[in-house]
Please model this.
Amino acid sequence: MDNLYSLTAGELLSLLDKKSVKPEEIIESVYSRAQSVDKKIKGYIHLDKEKALDQGKSLPAAGRLRGIPVAIKDNICVEGELTTCASKILRGFKPPYNATVIEKLKSEGAIICGRTNMDEFAFGSSCENSSYYPTLNPWDTGRIPGGSSGGSAAVVSADEAIMALGSDTGGSIRQPASLCGVVGMKPTYGRVSRYGLIAFASSLDQIGPLTKDVKDAALLLGVIAGYDGKDSTSVNIPVPDYLGYLKNDVKGMKIGIPKEYFVSGMDKEVEGSVKEAIALLKGKGAQIVDVSLPHTEYAVAVYYILATAEASSNLARFDGIQYGYRCADPENLLDLYERTRGEGFGAEAKRRIILGTYVLSSGYYDAYYLKAQKVRTLIKNDFERVFESGCDCILTPTSPTPAFKIGERVLDPLSMYLSDIFTISVNLAGVPGLSIPCGFTKNGLPIGMQLIGNFFKEEKLFRIAYTYESNTDWHKRSPGL
Amino acid sequence: MAYEPVIGLEVHVQLKTVSKMFCGCATGFGGAPNSHTCPVCLGFPGALPVLNQRALTGSIRVAVAVGCKISDKITFHRKNYFYPDLPKDYQISQYDEPLSEHGHLKIKISGGEKTIRIKRVHMEEDAGKLIHEEGGDSSFVDFNRSGMPLLEIVSEPDINSPEEAYRYLTDLKLLLRYLDVSDCDMEKGSLRCDANISIRKKGETGLGTKAEVKNMNSFKAVKSALEFEFERQVKRLETGERIVQETRLWDPDREITVSMRSKEEAHDYRYFPEPDLVPFMLQNDLIEMERKNLPELPGARKARFASAFGLPEYDAEVLTQEKETADYFEECLGFYDKPKIISNWLMGDVSGYLNAKNLSVRNSKLRPQGLAGLLKEVDSGKISGKMAKDIIIEMLDTGEDAGVIISEKGLAQISDSGELDKVSEEVIAENRKTAEDFLKGKDNALMFLVGQVMKRTKGKANPAVVNRILRDKLTKKQGEEDA
Model:
């Protein structure tokens, strides 16, 4: 059987059930695909076929992901394997432990198939801030795949992995999923353990799935979700059977359309596709209502204060003392710190560390950090009001534009920051968000829409997304590679 | 012009928990460098803290014991600064919402008691330890201490002499040991103290510019450093100089303080709420349980020892200075019901032995039941008090029962009147002159005769019995002669 790599996890698992395919055949297929196309895409940082085949030799019989190759973003710790956040400062770093999500994947028989490229420490929306090389968009290799989980989105889109894990702090799963034409979800804050995720902004980060279709996203989230005693911010609420909610039926479900997300000047093709999707869901019996999230305009400002403040502290530990990069021949302690960090971090990391250090400094704390925390509460309240009014989901575009050209925004950090304007509020509020393909531009670039749910109501998003997917075939298109 | 010092103390104590504050690593003192570590206390990327419940309950116990108001909400903050012994380059601590505030500690001062207000008691994690290569240019880090639970107890500037500071520390340590939350061993670093000191003219109420003094490794050093610092500040003001706000280090060899950094060089710690530990509401019953389970505190115990056991105040004070001594004393009472006698022995021979060997009564070999057994042997007359003084040393050395030592060494006192009768007759016969002196009214003469009997029995005779026998015999003889 050829082209196993192009199938979904759901399809492969039923083939495995029927014993019409062997796990090593899947691994072989995915690796030969990666070997032939990753030269063009550069989605992976590390790939180790032998290790993957080893993992395939002893699989739990009832594993929910047995034999399925899953690509892992380079900021999730895998014991004994290079985990570098695509940063020079962590070159050579091999964690002595597995992230909780890795433990969960392994216990369900998933094959950890490689480490995907990202913006350094997840700082960016284009994958151009990787210290290795930029990843390219499989639909147009002159364009970026989005970021920061650009590698994970690109390898799923290009069939170099069956599914992938990313992390999302301000849109880092949903935006690249949208730009690469795959499904991506940021779960509710606290739904998935962050233990072993190298922190960018602790109060915003969540690990989530990037997959070829909604069913795979539901399957993968079901495996990685759940309370973890090692993460004080994980929440002890039972994980529903997400697959059981996948029904082609949205009758009576109420979908809110926030006016703040449909503003004049937005990309016409994106707007058109999202509006068509709204019409489709309405046709399937969903109730469409106008809603307002009045504090949306402050989200980007609040985010770049809070996220950088936390990042400046989280990244302090990369100091050349215990692990990772250390500058050559330091003269004294201060020199060691300054040169290690000066040489080890890229420009965007430095920019964010400086921003975050500034907003936490005495004399500025109240005006920036404290004020931003208050506005964050207002943003959260906006969402709570909409869900209290009976909405099952809020529907918006995922990204204001399709994939932009490589280099287009590198010199203008502000325009880069605005790439996440539709996704950032979701992290600030802590609610779940899912991006699903909803069309293509006339140039053949994917367009995604975002479904935002109430706290711990991921299953409703899966239901609506599954209904939409069942009535469209955007997800069946592949980039011609 | 007379000045007085105004002193506030910041005390850090290591809580005696089984595991560290935010991970499962063991807290034991010692161990090969970096043997009690894991990704969490090493600050590895991706590792996350989880609060140790025992550290929380121990902290609450202390807060309750010093009468603090305990916060409803537990929040942690990050204190950011770079140092190689701090693996995350921030310390998880508490900042503007500490565990508890507004308590007090009563200390003994000459002529009575003084109340020192406690500003706050809060939780934080400890850092690792730097080890500098002797004569080389390398430094090493041992992270065994990293993440150990600490309690910071901050006093208000209510202390007005180095001597009061010493008393405060002594009484605080006593309290913490009673609460069984910390070893409070300054040498092992389980108690550390920094002092803030300023001076003002006597009678004034304002506060002068303060200096923070660090690096004292004993209560005595705290006292000496404060004495030095007081003199230094007085001298500056008297010569027309200003006091600058700064951090100073105590140099124990030169017995002076030296400037470490000025206010301008002070760190900006960029405190902000620790996002990895979500604030949570403290259950009131948790506080009430600690309050209910509070052990009897030193002051109350001392009063009870005096009233319930009829001990002199001095005895009650000495016996309650260490919780384990007081516990030991009460255990002895369970086997032997004469409190003052137990107290005499514990404060006398036993404590002399323990001090010489630098032992505590608990890790000596003498058990409460053993001590009681010895005292009963004295009461029964089997041995003399003097013999008991030798036997107790043996018991402390070997842990053997008094009865076994007495019989093995043939130490039993002769109280058998048959044997003593015979010896007494001989002594009287050989000392007729002395016997007559006694009958003439010289009481000292009897003591000489008793001494002779003791000599012949090699000290084993029971002096009280000998005394009685001799007196009986002599008066009987006189009666016979008179008749």
The interface with chain A takes residues 39, 42-51, 78, 80, 82, 84, 87-90, 141, 268, 270-272, 275-278 of chain B (CB under 8 Å). The mean pLDDT of chain B is 88. Chain B has three domains: 3-288, 296-408, 417-482.
